[in-house]
Design goal:
Chain lengths: 166, 286
């Protein structure tokens, strides 16, 4: 239990630091901003309680908000994504999976994992941009930024997962 | 209570989601200038819309009272229109020959215009009440006329109202004459029809025809000479057979009359005083 908390705390620190130092400064074509700290949610194994996921997601998002000077944006988006993560993993996991299965391409199959990661990151990115923009006037620009950021975030999450799996 | 606790325990993650999202949104609008301004603007717009809906709803609820007020107002306005239309008619209608002649006859006199407040025509001793009194210079024994003839004589007055003894009163007696020949007599009412009166004491040698005009004689200080009274409608013998009794069709329809004028004669008190002095002198002599 303690080990799990320490491991997740370490992941939070690493992801928040990476976001602060590197990814906050990337704006590809003026639109795509990577938000790979959502990877924290993909690390939660099957059977994780929803309140646990939401609490971790909220704290991680709050720390990103603090270092990015965007209070409420990342925390709100992470909380929402963390709310849907446990049932989504339950739904997409293999039928013969263990109760505490760690989500990974190896355990779930590559494409299933990609779909799972894509869904979690999509919900997170959409919520993040809606909170950041906070209006519905420039839908086209927001949609482009949202989709490109989502793709970039998904790629980075898959990259993190491949590194972690090794 | 237990059911409530079970409900909360079952759906606690939903409550937690709402709580954390509320915290996030509060932080969002509190610590981000842009989102804060958008929130305030949107909230103000929403509040204004809600206030407008509330105002409309309140107005709708109060429509019943507004309708009642409007109906009352409508009644008042209709009454005003009827009154003003009547005034307009009386001011603009083409005057008859009788009215023009009467205006000429009374041109030199001071007239006080009045409205009839109450009237009766069905009793033997009818009376009229008019809305002018001693405050307007009206005194007993003054004559009252209207556009189409003689009405009667002021009987009593108060400060703002007066009682008129009209022709349709058994005690009424007005000196009249036939316009063509000048023969005169006294006009009285027999208490039968409100459209007819009796002119007594017309001498047997007098010549006249049905339809001849009867007017005031001017022998008293009440009415000036020549005020239209009516037309001869029938000729009868008097009870003693020494004179004629003429049935006069009155020029005034007392059942519809509304506006009258009181004739104020400047020298009437002086004439009355003189007449009373003469009466007392004769009384002492005899």
């Amino acid at each position: 239990m303690l080990q799990t908390i320490l491991q997740r705390s370490l992941w939070v620190v690493v992801l928040v630091a990476a976001q602060m130092i590197v990814f906050n400064h990337i704006h590809l074509w003026g639109y795509a901003t990577p938000l790979p700290f959502v990877y924290l949610l993909l690390l939660f194994p099957m059977g994780t309680q929803r309140w646990t996921a939401m609490l971790w997601g909220f704290v991680c998002g709050l720390m990103v908000d603090i270092v990015s000077l965007t209070p409420g944006v990342a925390s709100g988006a992470m909380t929402l994504a963390a709310f849907i993560q446990p049932p989504l993993l339950q739904l997409m996991a293999p039928k013969d999976a263990l109760e505490d299965m760690q989500a990974s391409p190896k355990a779930m199959g590559l494409w299933v994992y990609v779909r799972y990661a894509a869904m979690v990151t999509a919900v997170f990115t959409l919520a993040y941009f809606l909170l950041a923009v906070f209006n519905f006037f420039h839908i086209r620009d927001v949609a482009i930024a949202c989709v490109t950021s989502w793709l970039l975030t998904l790629v980075l999450c898959l990259l993190f997962e491949s590194v972690r799996s090794k | 209570m237990r059911a409530l606790l079970e409900f909360i325990a079952k759906y606690y993650h939903w409550f937690m989601l709402v709580a954390l999202e509320v915290v996030s949104i509060v932080m969002l609008v509190s610590f981000n200038r842009y989102q804060g301004s958008v929130w305030v603007t949107t909230a103000n717009a929403a509040l204004a819309r809600i206030n407008a809906w509330e105002h409309q709803a309140t107005q709708f609820i109060h429509l019943g009272q507004a309708n009642a007020d409007l109906a009352l107002r409508n009644i008042i306005l209709e009454q005003n229109i009827a009154f003003l239309s009547q005034q307009l008619d009386s001011l603009t209608h083409d005057s008859t020959i009788t009215e023009r002649l009467q205006a000429e006859r009374t041109a030199g006199f001071d007239m006080v215009h009045a409205k009839i407040v109450t009237s009766s025509v069905m009793r033997r001793d009818n009376l009229l009440t008019i809305n002018v009194g001693s405050a307007d210079g009206v005194k007993p024994e003054m004559g009252v006329i209207c556009g189409t003839g003689v009405v009667g004589i002021i009987h009593t007055t108060s400060e703002h109202f007066s009682i008129v003894m009209p022709l349709l009163n058994s005690h009424s007696s007005i000196s009249c004459r036939l316009r063509k020949t000048g023969y005169f007599g006294f006009l009285r009412w027999d208490g039968k029809s409100p459209f007819f009166a009796i002119l007594d004491d017309i001498p047997r040698h007098a010549r006249f025809r049905l339809g001849d005009i009867v007017e005031t004689s001017g022998f008293t200080s009440v009415f000036p000479r020549g005020i239209f009274v009516g037309k001869v409608a029938a000729i009868e013998n008097s009870d003693d057979g020494l004179s004629y009794k003429l049935r006069i069709h009155l020029g005034i329809d007392f059942t519809r009359m509304q506006d009258v004028s009181v004739i104020r004669q400047a020298f009437q008190p002086e004439v009355h005083e003189l007449e009373s002095q003469a009466d007392s002198t004769f009384a002492q002599t005899h």
